[in-house]
Queue: 4 jobs
Job 1
Amino acid sequence: MKTRITELLGIRHPIMQGGMHYVGFAELAAAVSNAGGLGVITGLTQKTPELLAKEIARCHDMTDQPFGVNLTFLPAFTSPPYPEYIQAIIEGGVKVVETAGRSPQAYMETFKSAGIKVIHKCTSVRHALKAEQIGCDAVSVDGFECGGHPGEDDVPNFILLPLAAEKLTIPFLASGGMADGRSLVAALAMGADGINMGTRFIATQEAPVHAKVKQAIVNATELDTTLIMRAINNTERVMVNQGVKKLQAIEKEKGEALDIKDIIEQVAGIYPKVMIDGDVESGAWSCGMVAGLIHDVPTCQALIDRIMLQAEQLIRQRLVLALN
Ligand SMILES: Cc1cc2nc3c(=O)[nH]c(=O)nc-3n(C[C@H](O)[C@H](O)[C@H](O)COP(=O)(O)O)c2cc1C
């Protein structure tokens, strides 16, 4: 399948794997890229720019296909040395960066002069337009259903994607709630040029996370995620678990007076506990509503092949036949 996204990124299928903290290691990024999508290493999971450089080198050893690095500009407890991370990306020969959170404006010139394509992830049309205006090559539009940070507008993809198509000139990916060939065809119908998936890629053979995380996603229904941190304007969609229930009890008690310090135990340092140790009940970890559509743990190759086959069948059979 050829779209503006496959052309822009030099990939075979219009499917991208979004950056995911403690999930987006070289193993997953390489597997997605080898299967014809765009795999992405999560920059800040690597504790230093030197470690990111090593992770990029490991990924080059596992694939000769293009892959990207995610750089998240989120309110962090301590601000990472972004220019040095960017230097590691440039020196590592990576040609695609997925930015998220705050605007990448301050670094656009550096990215552009290194020939790097920038895909900014946004949760609203106004932020997508701003990204277009500052020179991003594409955007990833994250709907309310997404795992991670859906923003504060609560607009689901059935509204957000057609609106993005009406307003944007640059290519865009539909992100949030994407799982299969039906998602891809629907995204294309709404004007997107491809899909970005997070949660779906965690439940794959190559995702280097504890088997209990994959099983928790397979077991979850569409009702098993919830929103946290709304009172501090840092809303996150996470899997419901014991730690999150505790966190939400604190949120209820504190109301609008909630401070990040009140819930630090349930949000700080949780990812290694969950993703490496398999302690899936320990606290907040991002997960999309799409978990309800995930029933297995295939290889990335099998998953992407299946998505492309289902999309093609839907277009050639269901959609074309509907015209008769
Ligand atoms: C466990 C997990 C961790 C994530 N970490 C990040 C991150 O560090 N930076 C980022 O930009 N997005 C992050 N995301 C968001 C994904 O890149 C992607 O936008 C989102 O998962 C799409 O929604 P979906 O899960 O419904 O596919 C994360 C998502 C998950 C599920």
Job 2
Amino acid sequence: MEMLASPLASSARLPRLTNQDKEQQMSERPKIFVKPNGSIRVTGAVDFVDADGNVIETKENFSLCRCGNSKEKPYCDGSHREAGFQG
Ligand code: FES
């Protein structure tokens, strides 16, 4: 009698992560860069939560103002250049 492998049993196994998989996961983690004389650049997906911890929006790849001159706060609109922001 021929034994067949159960598709359920094989799909229930956890996959072993390769180094490439781990690098992929690391590259998907959000990162924050403070740009000289400019904005705070956020890469990757980030949840915005309210005071109660509810996710109100998820955004990817955006820049936050740190000069105080943006008309689109909290996001950077490039006004830091005209303002000559140093920081
Ligand atoms: S940092 Fe860009 S407008 Fe403020």
Job 3
Amino acid sequence: MKPSWNAASRKIGSVTDNPEEGRPGCPLRSKAVPLSPRGFELIRLQRPLDESYQSADQQQLATRIGNSLEVLGSSVVILGHHYQRDEVIRWAHATGDSFGLSRFAAENSLARFVVFCGVHFMAESADILTGDDQKVILPDLNAGCSMADMADLQDVQACWEDLDQITDIRGVIPITYMNSSAALKAFVGRNGGLVCTSSNARAALSWAFGQVKTISERPKVLFFPDQHLGRNTGVQLGYNPKDMHVWDPKLDTGGLEERQIKDASILLWKGHCSVHQRFSVPQIQDYRSRHPEGKVVVHPECSLEVVEHADEVGSTDFIIRYVASQPAGTKLAIGTEIHLVNRLANNNPHLTIESLDPLVCPCSTMFRIDPMHLCWVLENLQQERVVNQITVDPETKQWARVALERMLATTN
Ligand code: SF4
């Protein structure tokens, strides 16, 4: 019987809406709770902002943000994830992926306030990596990541216990993608595993198999939360997709037979990115029929079929570098978040760039960060008030750092 969080005492949308004490990681994390046999509801934590923000137009907000930044000076650093909208990115002191931005904040230790324009797990990662005197802020607490929320610590622990009953757990290395809660990063740190990014997943898996190959006849990786990154990386390393099985946390023993678990090389958590799973093989075929000379580049959070039909696959940083390396006149279809695709198209007028998905596919949670919430955060800082601070508890932080340090030692 799997334990579950009790949401009964929460008041949705109020300041008292904090998950119960003792939950590892940052308590200000939205949480999907089962409300009925039919589905889940996401607990929302962000209160509506007051009228002075809601009624301000974009120009007024821009003026107020600019004024606040002038007053706050070098005490604040604003981080803008690649998938963020342009009206927010224009204020960012640095743009990049979640790990790169967290490192940037840690290197800028004079900045007491780190405003992370991304999603919750990114702000947690920044809090893990920055100094004790730096405070990390997420402008809108409802900016979670649906993929990160698909792997809950208690479900992962239950899975780990099941694996311990069925197979030699010493031969299993847990790996979590950067896009996961601090609690999961700590879990893998405690259990001999590591974190990976979409840039270094291959090195992380190779390291993991190397660790356990002499311990177990059938060494395994338990990879979460994104089954697609795990599967794509396993295939790149030569593992057969037939030896990778999806662990569904809603089912007993993940919905797998004992034999399947024993024989598996990679157990993939049943998680996905709602943005990247939209890309499909018919979209690639359609693009190729319209632009036979065009190239298709996709992110490894896309399905294996999409990756196999694309010309190139890689992280957001890879995609940016790949675009920059193309000669004038090149036609490209890109399978990643639409704000990054549009920015690449605007910044590279000598190329013809379009989204692989003809229907716009923004990351809806990332999109919650807007100038209104950024303005609110900065004006509060001006008044010496820190709102929406993301804090990871010390024990979780310590073990998450172990997992991140293993990643750096393995992949640098
Ligand atoms: S793009 Fe996907 S993985 Fe990235 S934050 Fe949005 S939902 Fe999460």
Job 4
Amino acid sequence: MHEYDEMALDILILGGGGAGLMAALHANARDPNLKIGIAVKGTIGQSGCTRMVQGGYNAVLDPADSLDKHFADTIQGGGYLNDQELAWSLVSDAPKLIAELERHGCYFDRTPDGRIYQKPFAGQSFDRTVNRGDLTGIEIMSRLKDSVVASGVTPLDEHRALSLLTDADGGVGGALLMDVRTGRFLAATATATLVATGGGARMYRVAAPSLEKAGDGMAMCYRAGCSMRDMEMYQFHPTGLVAGASVLTGSVLEEGLRGAGGLLTNANGERFMSRYDSERMERSTRDLVSRAGYQEIQAGRGTEDGAIFLDVSHLGADYVEQTFPGMTDRCREVGFDLAREPVKVSPTSHFHMGGARIDSSCRTNLDGLFVAGEDSGGVHGANRLGGNGVAESTVFGARAGDAMAGYVRDASRSSISVGQIEVAIDDALKPMTGNGGENIYAIRSEIEDLMWEKVGLVRDGAGMQSALDTLDGLAERHQRATVPDIREYNLAWQEWLNVDSILTVARLTAISALSRAESRGSHYRTDYPEPDESTPPYNVLMQQDGEAPKVWTEDVRLAKLQPVGIEDQSETRMRQ
Ligand SMILES: Cc1cc2nc3c(=O)[nH]c(=O)nc-3n(C[C@H](O)[C@H](O)[C@H](O)COP(=O)(O)OP(=O)(O)OC[C@H]3O[C@@H](n4cnc5c(N)ncnc54)[C@H](O)[C@@H]3O)c2cc1C
């Protein structure tokens, strides 16, 4: 028998980003007597990607804009794969959430006459992006954290969730947690559990999301029996910094630099975008520019360390330093002078559009399990518009909080068997007891290279099949990897657990990508380079079924907006 602590809650929230904090605040506001715990792998309000949001938050605030326009932009951007009910929830709640964030103390940039300033962002038919300079995420998370601290919600900083606890009927009743500082386990049982751990886009060689994210939430959901959707849909940003072993490698140099006239060149000095989109050049869409940069590097026209160049020096040093102070500072930290010289960049993995299948109250197919934010799929379809990510995390976090408060009022607490806690702890301790000798960091780096080359920006069936075989081998090696037998702040142990999640998410990504025999949105296959217009748009669904997932497709329910004809998806019409 293992030793572990116990905690009984009404609501357990996993993740302290925008979705987790908003859920805690909403559930607490609904019923301040509820026992709510928020377990965070990092620290509350200081970890995750919501804090990293630079660009801003999309919401319809101007009378000349409309929910229909924001909705149509979101669906067209998503290649018609979005769950339209979720997308409608996003656009219709976002304006309310901006007002709510202001009540929490957020101050957004203003126009001279005192209204909230809204800037243009790619893929939008109206300027609707709310921001606080290029530190919008810090503004939001700092204020939300203050409110959570004042609310009486139980904070569990540096507690990573390892697995969901299920009852005899397959419902979810909490999670096994680990205090990363001490290595002690904590079985937190709860009537309702929210997974809001922020997705898993760090399984690629170059990646932008916060360092602790490893797809834990998606892996836990899948293993508990939750249905997952469109896991193949990953967004890459065209310009991630390339700075050797620095943690800043992969961090985003914002799109505004290209918008302002930034040039992209390869190692031969060519403005390569002329080969891919001679009309829009560097101002082409995010997915096309990312793919072009990747193809240049793969074709040997990048630098030795796998980069191309972003050059804004011709815009004038004063202009660049004044307009992009954050980006200038970021480059300076790694020895580049953005205002005066070309800077090395590469496409960088940015956002996972796939995830757990939810309804508009964030419920899943498993009783007691709710999912919100980047761990869920469906809102963005095949591609996410800039500015819709933080809107998603706060809108659906709020919805999840409201729904869970209602759910716990009517539901009874699940009974969780002690046996599964023992098994989960055994699994977590495995690398401390084995003697296989494999190095966990080497395995992680091989997965990242494999996913980058075979299941990344440019894919094909043979490559993905071989990637799946290689992932099987890497999974076996992962089981043979060993880490020092130390519980306190054991980073190798944490990495072993990260790789466990990453392997699951990587497999689901490759299987789902193989099932989609077309190119659409962020998913590009050289063996199927066009969208399949012979069938209505469909989603790829997956659920655990023994060792391999059960995979099936379902036509998208085009409840509100649909392509005019399957042959011509460039125009749309609203259904009454
Ligand atoms: C560099 C960058 C810039 C971005 N800019 C924008 C932008 O301008 N506009 C926009 O709309 N979107 C932007 N996005 C996307 C946006 O940040 C995300 O869509 C959104 O913030 C995700 O919110 P979340 O609450 O789901 O997750 P996050 O905010 O990422 O929070 C996840 C939380 O879960 C915790 N966690 C992880 N694993 C575990 C575990 N096992 N147990 C417990 N806790 C765990 C983390 O520590 C963290 O607290 C950007 C993303 C990046 C990477």
